[in-house]
Amino acid sequence: MSQAGAAAVVPAASSTRSSSITDVPWDELDKPKFYTLAFTSFLGLRVLLHPTLVVKTRMQATGEVYSGTVAAVRHIVKQEGMRGVYKGFGVASLSLLPRQAYFTIYELLRRYLGPESSPSLYMSMGAQQGEVVRNMVAGAGASVAMQVATVPIDVVSQRLMVAGIAGGEGGPTTAAAIAREVYATGGVRGFYRGFAAAVMQFAPTSAAWWSAYGLYKFAPTSAAWWSAYGLYKEPLAARIDALPLNLSEEARQILVQATAGYLAGATTVVLTNPLDVIRTRLQVRRGAAAAGATMLSEARALWAAAGARALMKGLGPRMISVAPASVLVVTTYEYIKRVSRKPAEAVPESVRQELAAAAQLCRRYSGQPV
């Protein structure tokens, strides 16, 4: 990723092999190939994961209609058939386009915050802490930018998911009709209902996810620093190396990335579920019910109705969706980067020199021999 021999050279605590968990620098990617593969791959993932999004949205937005995740799935399929769990799929899939921008912005911010562009960050904090801040800021910045494009899509797609069901709020049942109603009652601002809640949920989620992923994936310079964050007393890669498995280097990298992705996803799901509940309820409200609704009023109403339990609604389907989805998304993303890498001779010499310099700086700030 970006200048990102930086991340690639985060050093090992236990073995030299642990340092071989690498990233592909953004400057070395064949961009047309990368974007084409990313769009088609993530469309396939959307087909797999959309039903969990429908179930989560129904549970959060329709009170006590469903008693649990399994009951919700059974009820939807019984009443509406398999089409029911794919409500809003077409509209929701439009978010795949801004998702390409999300990864681009994330990578560019990482490049800007790399050890060569921002050496003071690494000199003051060290390599690992510098990487945490780098991933955190890049993840949050990319998420905020993406919400501008995806919140209107979410407003329409989530209303489609709850349209015409018991416990919902009634109203139009097609994407075009919903969009017309949103515009008629709230103008352009209507499409950004829940924008603040989305930013407050997804920016910290993105920041936490990329930071956690980097922490879980890469080995730190010292076991003491690692365990101080309550993660591992030894690096994830070292633990995987200790398993009685005869893995190729490619399989080993995928396993480390998949495990780190799952742990990062599970961590962020638990931390951000209350914000997800509030955002979803704000976005599916209609008419007069929407006029005075705020994040605070929704939180108070949920707490009054069912206490803390209300803020954990949909946790099951979110965990089923987000944690495994994190594995699929990150391993797919990392694989697409690997297969989209330009041949070494196609990378300009100036870029290779920049990446080598960034790697050297990161080693220096880590206290390793340069």
UniProtKB/TrEMBL annotation:
Membrane topology: Multi-pass membrane protein
Key words, A-Z: Membrane, Transmembrane, Transport
Entry keyword Transmembrane: yes
A GO-annotated cellular component: membrane
Matching InterPro entries: MCP_dom_sf (IPR023395), MCP_transmembrane (IPR018108), SLC25A44 (IPR042164)
Protein origin, superkingdom: Eukaryota
Primary localization: membrane
Family: Belongs to the mitochondrial carrier (TC 2.A.29) family.
Solcar repeats: 32-112, 130-219, 252-339
GO biological process: branched-chain amino acid catabolic process
Family annotation (Pfam families): Mito_carr (PF00153)
One of the record's GO molecular function terms: branched-chain amino acid transmembrane transporter activity
Localization of this protein: Membrane
Gene3D superfamilies to which the protein is assigned, alphabetical: Mitochondrial carrier domain (1.50.40.10)
Name the record gives this protein: Mitochondrial carrier domain-containing protein
